[in-house]
């Protein structure tokens, strides 16, 4: 598309969690190899300016003219902090997700030594020394239990959503282990496997390889406990008329889901709305899936909600095309109905600015007085700022108080 791009990365390397995911479905390419290839492409493209260890400190302006203040070297390892400004026409947000971190004692986590999370397990596999046996925490592993939906599809907790990628990631991990250690027995304690689409093939492959799938009821989760030095997982199995199944295992892997990024700074600076699940919200899931209510700002990948790698890549492509369409147009269509303030009566209390869902109101100095000024390109004329203004200093074009009063009068007579 030929646009110039500033790629702002808060970490020291681009790629987010992808590099740590191991083999990506359908199990041919490794995440780290994908990141490596993309990194080389980015470095060799002179239209892309890559800024690592960098955070957004401030963002002003609107579509076509965003002024962003950046803070570099946030890790503080290479040189003292420095700041610089960039001016861009549109912003694409792809801040990713965090893995759910189980509470102490949740399925024995941090209380029983051999209970770990799926990301920790992937890390162990990645850094493992070659050998005939799989050794974890000085223990030879013969039996593994994966417990699914940890931090997702919660009955009691807040995370009601399915994290979409973790069933496939757990099954892929099991197949990776079996490839090297065919005698390891794997038990999958699931709430019902959701390997949608072609990922079903991996589910079938794992079943054929001897993995045992147990489906526990939503409200009766498995219990992990330790007895005489042995770790046991007990659950009722829906697939065999709620028969109680107990497995003695050497390792329990908690298949943890996705939660929104805990660093809320980008969302609050750009005033991006969030959904009930706390991920960023698009305007319409089907009709405008990557646009936000802030003109010129799109969202992509898992900052918007749980997605697999392919789904994230597709949403990023879609957001990139939309972003290009913002800057390539060269002109904007403004809303014919917008709000404006009366600078004589406004005393800047900030109430309207807080109420505006489009970040259209800012505090400005007009003839030596601080007042609310409404950005004509960002205002959507929604009227949310009007009722919160105690001094009635805001009006809408074509719907001024006088005009509305006249309409009511005519209707009443
Ligand atoms: S709410 Fe009214 S008085 Fe307060 S800053 Fe906004 S326009 Fe000014
Ligand atoms: S009319 Fe709506 S979009 Fe415009 S300034 Fe008021 S609250 Fe913001």
Structural overview:
There is one protein chain. The protein has helices spanning 31-44, 118-126, 166-180, 200-208, 265-270, 309-329, 351-355, 401-412, and strands spanning 5-8, 23-24, 29-30, 48-51, 55-62, 65-72, 82-88, 91-93, 97-99, 115-117, 135-136, 139-140, 143-150, 185-190, 212-215, 223-227, 230-237, 243-249, 251-256, 258-260, 297-299, 339-341, 361-366, 369-374, 394-396. With 413 residues, it is of the alpha/beta class. It has 3 domains: 5-96 and 261-329, FAD/NAD(P)-binding domain; 99-258, FAD/NAD(P)-binding domain, CATH 3.50.50; 339-412, Alpha-Beta Plaits. Strands 10-19-13-14-15 form a 5-stranded parallel sheet. α4 (200-208) links the parallel β14 (185-190) and β15. The structure holds iron/sulfur cluster (2 copies). Residues 337-366, 370-399 form the 4Fe-4S ferredoxin-type domain. Pfam families: Fer4_7 (PF12838). Belongs to the HdrA family. This is 4Fe-4S ferredoxin-type domain-containing protein.
- What is the first-to-last residue Cα distance? 60 Å
Give the tally of structural domains.
3
Structural class computed from helices and strand pairing:
alpha/beta
Mean pLDDT: 91
Oligomer type: single chain
Q: What are the bound molecules?
A: iron/sulfur cluster
What percent strand?
25-35%
- At CATH level 3, the topology of the largest domain is FAD/NAD(P)-binding domain
- In the CATH hierarchy, the architecture of the largest domain is 3-Layer(bba) Sandwich
Overall shape: elongated
Highest-level CATH class of the largest domain: Alpha Beta
* Rg of Cα set: 27 Å
The stretches of 5 or more residues where confidence is low (pLDDT under 50) are: 76-80
The CATH homologous superfamily of the largest domain corresponds to FAD/NAD(P)-binding domain
Share of residues in helices: 10-25%
Q: How are the strands ordered across the major sheet? A: 10-19-13-14-15
Characterize the largest beta sheet: strand count, sense, and whether it forms a barrel.
Answer: 5 strands, parallel
Total helix count? 8
Total beta strand runs = 25
């Amino acid at each position: 598309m030929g646009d110039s791009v500033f790629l702002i990365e808060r970490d020291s390397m681009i790629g987010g969690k992808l590099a740590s995911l191991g083999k990506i479905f359908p199990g041919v390419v490794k995440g780290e190899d994908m990141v490596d290839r993309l990194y080389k492409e980015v470095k060799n493209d002179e239209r892309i300016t890559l800024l690592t260890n960098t955070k957004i400190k401030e963002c002003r302006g609107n579509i076509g003219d965003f002024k962003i203040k950046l803070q570099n070297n946030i890790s503080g390892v290479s040189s003292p902090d420095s700041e610089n400004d960039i001016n861009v026409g549109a912003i694409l947000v792809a801040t990713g997700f965090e893995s759910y971190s189980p509470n102490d004692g949740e399925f024995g986590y941090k209380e029983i030594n051999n209970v770990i999370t799926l990301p920790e397990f992937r890390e162990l596999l990645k850094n493992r020394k070659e050998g005939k046996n799989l050794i974890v925490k000085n223990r030879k592993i013969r039996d593994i239990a994966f417990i699914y939906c940890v931090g997702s599809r919660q009955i009691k907790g807040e995370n009601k959503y399915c994290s979409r990628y973790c069933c496939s990631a757990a099954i892929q991990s099991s197949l990776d282990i079996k490839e090297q250690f065919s005698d390891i027995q794997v038990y999958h304690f699931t709430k019902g496997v959701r390997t949608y689409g072609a990922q079903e093939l991996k589910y079938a492959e794992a079943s054929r390889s001897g993995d045992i799938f147990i489906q526990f009821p939503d409200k009766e989760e498995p219990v992990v406990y330790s007895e005489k030095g042995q770790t046991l997982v007990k659950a009722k199995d829906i697939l065999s008329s709620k028969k109680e199944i107990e497995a003695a295992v050497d390792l329990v892997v908690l298949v943890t889901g996705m939660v929104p990024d805990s660093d809320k700074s980008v969302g609050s600076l750009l005033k991006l709305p969030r959904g009930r699940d706390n991920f960023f919200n698009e305007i319409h899931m089907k009709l405008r899936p990557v646009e936000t209510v802030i003109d010129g700002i799109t969202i992509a990948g898992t900052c918007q909600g749980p997605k697999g790698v392919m789904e994230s890549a597709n949403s990023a492509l879609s957001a990139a095309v939309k972003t290009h369409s913002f800057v390539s147009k060269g002109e904007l269509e403004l809303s014919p109905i917008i709000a404006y303030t009366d600078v004589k009566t406004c005393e800047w209390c900030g109430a309207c600015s807080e109420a505006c869902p489009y970040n259209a109101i800012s505090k400005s100095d007009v003839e030596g007085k601080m007042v609310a000024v409404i950005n004509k390109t960002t205002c959507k004329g929604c009227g949310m700022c009007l009722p919160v203004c105690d001094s009635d200093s805001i009006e809408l074009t074509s719907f001024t108080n006088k005009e509305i009063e006249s309409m009511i009068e005519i209707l009443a007579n």
